[in-house]
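ZP: hey, is the adenosine-5'-diphosphate complex queued? I don't see it on the tracker
AM: it wasn't, my bad. submitting now with these inputs:
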Amino acid sequence: MTGPAEIRLRDLTVSYERMPAVHHLSGAFQGGRLSAVMGPNGAGKSTLLKSLVGLLPLDEGDIGLSGLARREIAYLPQHADLDTSFPITVFDVVAMGLWQELGLFGRIDAARTARVNEALETVGLPGFGERPVTNLSVGQLQRVLFARLLIQNAKAILLDEPFAAVDERTVQELLAVMRRWREEGRIVIAVLHDLAMARTAFDDALLLAREPVAWGGVEETLGTDNLARARYISDGWGRAA
Ligand code: ADP
Ligand code: MG
């Protein structure tokens, strides 16, 4: 497929038991830009990402894709629910990123092995392949999951609070990986809490309070008035719940 990648939302509403968590959201995420999704707790940020990858049914509205297919969207959930008590190796976790191109009976040949090792180098974990994931730090585990996203080669990458509990050095190195994805024209969407990071490292922001508060360039979107309004609207929804 050619042309810039875009995910368009038209009047999107997603609810749990008829209580909307994302309410009448319209706009677009564009390729070649880093988009931050921000808002108070319970604002619908995780719900939005899950609905984009098809994990939740839509109540209203629709999601349009240009320049990519649904299976080309990669998703890293909040608190990656990877069972780290199971003694799987770092290599195997990263190689899972190949499942779509391998299918059920595909083989991890020399070229694919090299790609896994190269991804581990990119995220600063050269030679970690044979280690069990059991005793990785939070930051190291997040690097492994980014390596998996790297070899997945998705056109859109959705990250739900990717930097939670991650050390500062890892944050900076993972941001560098995200900038590389931006240069490659991919859609990169991250749920964030850090306003300063969004303002300095991201291009666009979507500010949610179940309903959209603002969506556009980070400076305008994350202005004081919008932030106050997001909190006010969110508190109102809290009382209605
Ligand atoms: P955020 O990620 O912005 O903190 P969420 O998208 O997780 O917010 O949640 C938005 C709202 O939907 C919250 O009020 C939350 O309690 C509610 N919610 C989230 N998941 C479920 C669920 N599985 N069942 C019922 N309500 C849910
Ligand atoms: Mg969340």
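AM: back. The mean pLDDT is 93.
ZP: great, adding it to the tracker
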